[in-house]
Amino acid sequence: MAEISRQADAVHRTRTPLSRQRVLSAAVALADEGGVDALSMRKLAQELGVVPMALYKHVAHKNELLDGMIDVLVGEIDPPVADTDWKTAVRLRVLSARRMLLRHPWASGIIEARMKARAAPTPAVLAYLDSMIGIFRAGGFSVGLVHHAMHVMGSRLLGFSQELFDDAPGPEPDPDAPPPEEMAARYPHIAELASAVAHDAGSVVGSGCDDQYEFEFALDLTLDGLARLLP
Fold it and tell me: Would you give the DSSP letter of residue 61?
C-alpha cells in the first residue's frame, strides 16, 4: 500500500502544472526537512516529479532559487497591525519575523549570505523594509532618525541578530590553552558571568541564555531608546 501511495503522489505531482511558486514552496519544504545545504536542483526536481531542466524555466540557477525562497519566507511575516502606535507595530512585526525564522532555522544564514552577495535585497525584502520605514515615518520619525533606526535594528528587523558569544560546536579545544582555573583567574568577570547564568543547553544565542528572552530584551531596549529620541 505504501508503494502504491508513493506512485499516486508521483503521478499527482507530475500532472500538477509546474509554476515558480510551486518550485519555491517545494524548495522551502526540502530545506526544512534536510537543511539548505542538502538542497539541490536535482533533488528538487525529483521531489516535484520532473526532470531538472524543467526547473530552469522558473529559476535560472541555484542563487535565484535561494532568492525566491527568501521571498517566500518574508511573505510569511504578518502585515503591519493597523490602529496602533509605532512601537507596538514594529515590535509585533519583528516578533512575527522571528517566529518565521524559528519555523525555518536555516533561513537566517541564507538571508544574511544572499543580502551580502546581492547588489540589493530581493523584492519581498525591499517591500518589507519599505513598510517598516513607513511605520517609523508615520510614528513621527524624521528621515535622518529613521536612517539611524534601521541601522541599529539591523538584522533584528528580520527576526535574528549576530551574537558576540557563539557557543555553536567549533574546532577541537586548543591543547595549549591554559586550564580553566587559570582562565578564570585571568578573566574574572567573564568567569563570574558564565557561572551565574542559568544554562539552556538548546540555546542558539549562547549557552546560559534564553534565546527568546534575550532577543526581546534587546528589541525592547532598542525601541525604548529610539522613543527617547523623538521630539
Answer: S
**pLDDT tens sequence across 35-47:** 999 899 999 999 9
Nearest to 92 by CA among 157, 46, 38, 147: 157
**Average model confidence (pLDDT) across the chain:** 84
Phi, psi of 185 (to 5 degrees): -70, -35
Kindly list the distances between the CA atom of residue 221 and the CA atoms of 86, 152, 154, 207, in Å, as whole numbers in the listed order: 15, 11, 14, 22
What nine digits make up the cell of 202?
538548546
The predicted model scores a pTM of 0.77
> 3-class SS at 176?
coil
d(CA 223, CA 141): 12
- The answer to whether 90 and 136 are in contact (CB under 8 A) is yes
Rounded to whole angstroms, what are the CA distances from 33 to 6, 49, 106, 127, 167?
18, 18, 10, 28, 24
CA-nearest of 173, 217, 209 to 193 is 209
d(CA 146, CA 131) in angstroms, rounded, equals 12
Phi, psi of 58 (to 5 degrees): -115, -30
What is the spatial distance between Cα 84 and Cα 225, in angstroms, rounded to a whole number?
19
Torsion of CA 157, 160, 165, 167, to 10 degrees: 180
